[in-house]
Structures are given as structure tokens and as C-alpha cells.
Here is the input.
Amino acid sequence: MTLSSNGKFVYQSERCYYEDNYLSNSGDWWVEGNHLVLSGNSWGLTSTYSLNGNLTFDDMEWSK
Here is the structure.
């Protein structure tokens, strides 16, 4: 996942794997309280997040 400073994101994960394709998403991101919000072209997602050197979000740890 890439979170850009312009409020745009790109998300691709092995957890998004379907048949022979890795499904991805892109769109806008923002923070509301302790929730990271992804509003994408394919789907939306919001979940609590934490930063401890890396980003923990959606039950995964994303490195910088």
C-alpha cells in the first residue's frame, strides 16, 4: 500500500488475490480520529490504525 502526501493511495496485497490476478485499488485516503479511511475506485475500507515505526492497519503491518 502506498499512501501519498496528496491524499491518494494505491493498494495491492496477497490478501486481494483472486484466481490468476492480484486485485488492487486506488483512490483517496484520510484519517478520522484513530481510523484510516480508504475510499477507492473498487472498494472502500476503514479500520483503526497505529504507527510504531510501521503502519498497522487492516490486521497487517505495512513497512515504510
